[in-house]
Amino acid sequence: MKSNPLVKINELIEQDYLIVVDTNVLLGLYRLSPDYADFALKCLEKIKSFIRIPYVVALEFSRHNRKLYKDRQLSIKNSISDNLTMIENHKKKVLNAIAVLEKRNFPEIDELLNSVGACYDKATSLLDDYFDEHSVLTLINDTWNSDLPEDFLDELQNNQQIMAPLELSEIYGICDDGEKRYKKENPPGYKDAKKKDGIRKYSDLIWWKEVIQYARKSRKNIVLVTDDVKEDWWTIDEKGQYLFRGELITEFEKETKIRANQNQGTQLESLKLIPFISSDFYTAVANSYNIEKADAIGLAMNLTDKSYISHIQEKVFDDILDDLIFSGTQYVNDTVTYVGTEGIESWDLEDCEFLGYEIESRDGNTIYYRLNYSVCLSGYSHDYWGRDEDTKAVILSEPFYHEVKGEISVLVCREADLLIDYEEDDDYASAEIEEGDLSEVVYKDYQYEPEPDPEAYTTCSECGKPLSVYNDFNGKCLECAALED
Fold first, then answer.
1. Cα–Cα dist 19/48, whole Å
2. Which residues pair with 375 in a beta bridge?
3. What would the pLDDT profile of 89-107 be if each residue is shown by its tens digit?
4. Interatomic CA distance for residues 322 and 140, integer angstroms
5. What sign has the CA pseudo-torsion 463, 467, 473, 477?
6. Pairing mode, strands 394-396 and 51-52
7. Mind telling me which InterPro entries this protein's record contains (predicted)?
8. Separation CA 263–CA 247 (nearest Å)
9. Strand duo 273-276 + 344-363: pairing
10. In Å, how far are 23, 35, 470 from 144, measured between CA atoms?
11. Distance CA 283, CA 291 (A)
């Protein structure tokens, strides 16, 4: 069954459906842009009376919401300065590139520098003016004067809309069952098996069982909203639509059916489950109740770029390391003294440091980041001297040693949407080295170094003449030793 934004939520409520919301949907409210978060809360507020929250979901929410609320305030505050910083970084980079032309005797470079600099200053001014003119927008002035998701959950708690906790014996039974299910990769929750431990490893399965038990006892059909889009909840079809795992639908229907021998001779048929991801759910609610919709693509973009970069910076470098090692002189500038005719087969990484990042561009829900690294590489090259007449083996010169140092830029493509787990997100569509500026810092030509005399292993302590096994007399040469006698 797919997540369908065209479903009429008001009609489902009239048919006695209740709405169950997962932890990631509630915590996701902190990660949305202010406008989209307000839109989502307006949708939840509209159907608030029909929402039920599993006890485990409420517990998990209380563990994380304070930190996310604080991070949210900082991300909104920093969003303006981040945009201005991006322009300034681009300006410096372009002006530095133009300045190189002056060293190569291009004419009228000063005029070009002034014109380009003025364009960047104009861009900064336009951005400043935009923020001034739109200061009423929630992108800048946040409408939240308190922790609204927490307030919302507190109200549900006061109205007894939080499900009762399971007995400890029931939880242990679910954990035992979960161990068997996870080995067979039966949904839900098995994707958490390696990331979590103890009872937390089974939290998805526990709240899933809470939902089934609540539905069975209350005889209510369920609308289930979860943004956990790992394969143990959802699959994605060829059209990019989210399909809820069929095994979960089957389990829900099986477990909510009550046989006659279990209910004093009266059989109760299976209940229905309709699944959603939150973006489709909010759209469905907005359509059903004529709530003005926000732009889900434009406004739901996350404002935690810095956190995301901290998650991916090492992984990105590991991914491009092979390309860097076998790049030869592709990213080395013209400072190299000489490279042998055979080129540099591979580099050794001597040092690496992450310098920072820039947002290169945004296109819908695709973001391009430029990650900058300082690297130091060492390697050897050789000249080709021919082949041995007898063995036909390639004969190479003595090595040339090279050590280069400088910066490389890696372009990373990220696909971002409402369903990203921003606390742990380290996914990206691609990462590739876009440019490099490495300069030679050490060059050594081993073929012109004098070969040491294998028999000259020390020198005379008197005259400095080289000594060997044939003329060493207690550290002195024959002549100096004779003078002593």
1. 9
2. 352, 406
3. 888 888 888 877 777 778 8
4. 43
5. negative
6. unpaired
7. PIN-like_dom_sf, PIN_8
8. 26
9. unpaired
10. 20, 11, 92
11. 9
pLDDT (average), residues 429-448: 88
**Structure token pair of residue 422:** 């921003």
Handedness of CA 417, 420, 423, 426 (dihedral sign): negative
The angle formed by the CA atoms of residues 181, 202 and 427, to the nearest 5 degrees, is 95
Which two three-digit tokens encode residue 280? Answer: 């489709």
**Starting from the edge strand earliest in sequence, which strands make up the sheet with 17-21, in order?**
51-52, 17-21, 221-225, 273-276
Burial (CB count <10 Å: 0-12, 13-18, 19+), residue 418: buried
Q: Match 């300034």 to its residue by tokens.
A: 88
CA distance 268 to 256: 8
The model's pLDDT over 4-62, given as tens digits with 9 standing for 90+, comes to 999 999 999 999 999 999 999 999 898 877 778 889 999 999 999 999 999 999 999 99
Of 149, 222, 148, 233, the C-alpha closest to 185 is 233
pTM, 2 dp = 0.57
Residue 449 reports pLDDT greater than 80: no
Q: In angstroms, rounded to a whole number, what is the distance separating the alpha carbons of residues 21 and 204? A: 12
* CA distances (Å), origin 56, targets 41, 70, 209, 211: 21, 23, 10, 10
What single-letter amino acid sits at 455? E
Rounded CA gap, 195 and 280, in Å?
Answer: 28
Model pLDDT for residues 213-267, shown as the tens digit of each residue: 999 999 999 999 998 888 889 988 877 788 999 999 999 999 999 887 877 778 8
The total of other beta-carbon atoms located within 10 Å of residue 92's CB is: 10
Tokens of 87: 């322009």
- Residues comprising the chain, all counted: 485
Q: How far apart are CA 325 and CA 321, in angstroms?
A: 6
Is residue 188 reached through a cis peptide bond, with omega within 30 degrees of 0 on the bond before it? yes
297-334 as b/e: b if 16+ CB within 10 A: eebbbbbbbeebbebbbeebbebbeeebbebebebbee
